[in-house]
Sequence to fold (331 residues):
Amino acid sequence: MSAPLPSIVIQGTGAFCPPKVLSNDDLAKRVDTSDEWIRTRTGIQERRIAEDKTTSQMAVEAAKQALQNANLSAQDIDLVIVSTITPDMPFPSTAALVQAQLGIPAVACFDLEAACSGFLYALEVGTQMLRSGNYKNALLIGAEKMSSIIDWEDRNTCVLFGDGAGAVVLSKTEEADTGVLGTLLGADGSKGDLLCMPGSGSSCPPTQTSLEQRQHFLKMNGREIFKSAVRVMEQATCDILKQHQLSTSDVACIVPHQANIRIFETLAERLELPLDRFFMNLESYGNTSAASIPIALHEAWEQNRLKPGDLILLVAFGGGLTWGSSLIRWQ
Ligand code: UT7
Fold:
């Protein structure tokens, strides 16, 4: 008989949200919008802006807190994965910049990009690398400076996003049947143009024309993304529960990607769950892309919403299009 798989557990969480607050009223002074429209259509009241802090600097702050909560030091980390669509620069990776700032030893460091689903992609990659036996403690970070790719003249998108970072320390333990029970991931590249940033890559390097055409900003077809988000997040939730022979009633807390309160309301209705089963903090931070789930996870833990033995479900959806769901037995 083969030995049981080691459990991969979240040892500690951390988050950093920059202090500068941008309220809905502040935005209404820049574009044709209102606090009332933003609140009722999205649930967002304010978001944070990094100003002169970079993505890696926010990631470092979140990571320090996660290490402290895990009772580990930078020397204990043997793998760093940063999920981001707003790296400090194309290379070196933000993970390598974080390694240098934290004094982490000369271990594997890389960035992973799956937009708003990025943290769940990092969780799956980190879990499988720890399971391989070659790593013991991984630092997984979702960090975004969305304010650097937002078109502040586009009211369709500028009201939605914010900056921040969340981190977890993922560790291998001998304890059985706890921690990350499984993750499902998916993507549909044929719908990539619904949420994208056309410029800045090899197909559209910066030129006078691309700058004038505002190609270096995020573009989104909100209505289509909304429809896909609801359908895919429901499917990803049902699929992972079915795979583990569990039902929605077994889940103590759902920590979803924080995009729009109306997505949660529709999901709650379709899954026949009370809305308070969903952890929400989008009113304070807006959509922080890959940072949203690890920030929410940290705040849910801080607020005592995650208790030992609880079944926690993470679910995300974003550009790519990408999606994912994860089941965690909290320890
Ligand atoms: O993280 C990745 C996942 N992202 C998402 O999940 C985002 C998903 N999409 C959404 O959350 C929603 O589609 C939005 C919040 C982006 C938009 O809400 P909506 O209810 O789908 O509005 P809409 O796009 O259908 O626009 C309705 C109206 C339009 O005006 P008309 O054409 O009816 O005259 C828009 O021009 O609202 C207008 N509008 C605004 N009005 C005031 C769009 N943005 C704004 C705004 N302030 N900021």
Residues 74 and 104 are 5 Å apart (CA to CA). The first helix runs from residue 24 to 28. The two ends are 27 Å apart (CA to CA).
